[in-house]
Amino acid sequence: METRICKKQDCRCQNPQPLNEFTRNKTICNDCVRCYYRNYALEWKNTSVGKKSRERNNKIKRENRQTERYEQEKARIRERWQTDKEFRQKEKERARKWRESEQGQKWLKEWHQSQEYKEYHKKYRDNYYKTEAYQQASRKYQQSEKWRKMTQKRDAQRRALEANAPGFFTQDEWEALCAKKNYCCLACGKKGKLTIDHVIPLSEGGINSIDNIQPLCKSCNSRKGAQTIDYR
User: Fold this and answer.
1) Do the beta carbons of residue 22 and residue 1 sit within 8 Å?
2) C-alpha–C-alpha distance, residues 33 and 47, integer Å
3) SS3 (DSSP) at 130
4) What is the Cα–Cα distance from 63 to 60, expressed in whole angstroms?
5) pLDDT tens digits along 185-197
6) Which tens digit of pLDDT belongs to each residue from 21-32?
């Protein structure tokens, strides 16, 4: 098979290649042509015309997502994903390559910093917490050795903070506070077993008195963590 070397000066592939890897004039290889158009497209996207075009295309995409045809196509792809194993593998490989590319990394960084992603992630997380799969995974993890060691370490740190923190409250004061709040979690409003939460965490210099205490359920208390959030 006849071979040839690309004549482009900054060509990365200075090795002989078969003729079917070249353009019609047989002087520049296909990789150099693709690289040129790729760089040209990236430069064009940063121009004022490119930004306006991207905004217009995004607007059209958002409008199309509300059509019945889009929902039908989405359902068809979802069904094919569940039934066609080969299609599923190809799509996973294609998505992996795109995520590892420079363009994919840049898009993901911008997407993760957007307000739309934060709202989507919060909605997905709240729905996932209600699923049976999450409940099973949570129960399995809480029975593991890793969870036991982590709980022991956390409780020891907690006792040390409470011992050194200023302030004090009694069990009667805690019961009166729960009764005042109608035994409801101040974050989600559900009735049930309540846990003690410090509005200003002890790790952030909060005091261990009833004025700095709010009743929260276990899940809301864990979700709040070491943040300073006053639900009162």
Assistant:
1) no
2) 22
3) coil
4) 5
5) 888 888 878 888 8
6) 776 666 677 777
